[in-house]
Amino acid sequence: MKIKFCLPWLVALCLLFSGCATLQDVSYLKDVAPSTAGPTVTNSQGTMSKKASRALLAKRWKNSYADAKALASLEELATGKPLIAGNKVTLLYDGPQTMASMMEAIGKAKDHVNLETYIFDQDEIGLQFAALLMERQRAGVQVHVMYDAIGTIGTPQAFFDKMRDAGIRLVAFNPVNPLKLVGPWEPNNRDHRKLLVVDGQVAFTGGVNISSAYANSSFFRSKAASADTVGWRDTHIRIEGPAVAALQWEFLTNWATQLAPELSDGNFFPPLANAGDKLVRVLASTPDGDHDIYAAYILAIDSAVKSVHITCAYFVPDVQILKALTGAARRGVDVKIILPSVTDSGLVFHAGRSFYDEMLSSGIRVYELQISVLHAKTAVIDRLWSTVGSTNIDTRSFLHNYELNAVVLDNEFGQALESAFDEDLRFSLEITADRWAQRPFSNRWKEWAARRMEYWL
């Protein structure tokens, strides 16, 4: 979800006070030989022995036609993050299902609730969420909330003051007012993550903000729907098992970077038993970091054998991502991308469309989801490598934002995400080369103009 009304002045400020950074060149990854020992795997008991991890991976990936071991090894080399075994990962579709699952978990909290979000609106959903958080705080559960200062710029301060008065510890991430900062003033760097951790035992992440934009479901898996009740189309996941500790660590680390209240003495890292059989890699990116999510995307696309299926709300690819996608299509990989036809950010929408000619000519099949506002950020490659998170495929996400994605290396989960992709295709219109060539000149001009600002979108 983009904040439209503050973009012009924010862009101007950034142009005045900062230079243009660049994404790292990851072409070297193609020439690196994967480790013959395989990737590092951890579980509830710690790091698994090479013998045990090889046996586990052989069992989990026995039906894969892609070289999962090589991809997992290269991804670890690029990101430094191990695979975490023993997790249960549940796909959540759209706002109502996601909100119900998160509220259920919060309602059962005994020790703490840690919430990190880009948007926290004072609307029907936001008020329900805030009321539940305050109720748990009064029941003796310590609640910590980190919200982005730009993402919540339209939310009255009194809304947050009420939660603070109830005992909730809150922090506005990277305030616009430089006098409230603990470090340098970087108004262009935003916390775009969506993360909820309850009692250190269950975690949620994905694309869903705390907003009434998610009060209704989209057409997803619906036989009939009224346009008057269509909600945003998004995807979130619920994780139980050892990977929750890695997500908890990312929350605590980000909290520590801010001028924030002291954290409570919560039991943030309780013992975590295996909860399922899913292999998860938790990837977090920061503006001054190594862009792990970006590298993981390129590695997975470059390694694709049969399919690359991406669903993306804001799509403005840089040179390396575009090269990876077009290269995959030209070598015969089935590359399909679902993008929005309805958007809350016109500049990003038209900038993304400016890439259609090149994508279509390379063999990429482009679809636009109809009616619902698309906000999901997911990908499934070879029905094995899947990712769900907050990261859009654009320079803003990869270079300027604090983002969070979970990568799941699992055939069963990959098939579930593939099924969701196919379902979204039902309500999507394919953009063919002939159709695209007939668009009006006014649209072409908008694409050209928006493309000039792609770095700042």
What attributes does this structure have?
two-stranded parallel ribbon, alpha/beta, 457 residues, disordered N terminus
Strand content: 15-25%
Radius of gyration: 21 Å
Q: Return the average pLDDT rounded to an integer.
A: 90
Shape: globular
State the end-to-end CA separation.
12 Å
The total count of helices amounts to: 15
Number of DSSP E strands: 19
The largest sheet is: 17 strands, mixed
Low-confidence stretches: 3-18
Quaternary organisation of the protein chains = single chain
What is the SS-derived class?
Answer: alpha/beta
Roughly how much helix do the residues carry, as a percent range?
25-40%
General description of the model:
With 457 residues, the protein is of the alpha/beta class. Helix content is 35%, strand content 22%. It contains 15 helices and 19 strands. The strands form two sheets. The protein has a 17-stranded mixed sheet that branches. A two-stranded parallel ribbon has the order 12-17. α8 packs parallel to α9 and α10 packs across α15. The N terminus is likely disordered.
